[in-house]
Design brief:
The protein has about 80 residues and is of the alpha+beta class. A 4-stranded mixed sheet has the order 1-2-4-3, covered by helices on one side. Strand 1, helix 1 and strand 2 form a beta-alpha-beta unit. The protein is globular and about 35 Å long. It starts with a strand and ends in a 12-residue tail after the last strand.
Amino acid sequence: MTVLDVRDALPRDRFPLIMGAYEALAAGEALHLTVDHDPECMYFTLLGTRGPEAFSFAYAERGPVVWRVTVTKLREVQVQAPAWG
């Protein structure tokens, strides 16, 4: 399991760090994430770009000061860039 605590990272760096850690996972591996706010943006990003069968997202702690989630990559999904226009 990959452990990532982004509470000390600059806010602008957090999302890229989190998504980079997720992308580095192999199918079946998990990311244990600790943040100081609800990481629902990650959930909705994964849902929209990979689909609900590609990952699991389980809260271990839901604030109000610390949020901890375990995100498991269930399968590899080729992510397509959105088509604009």
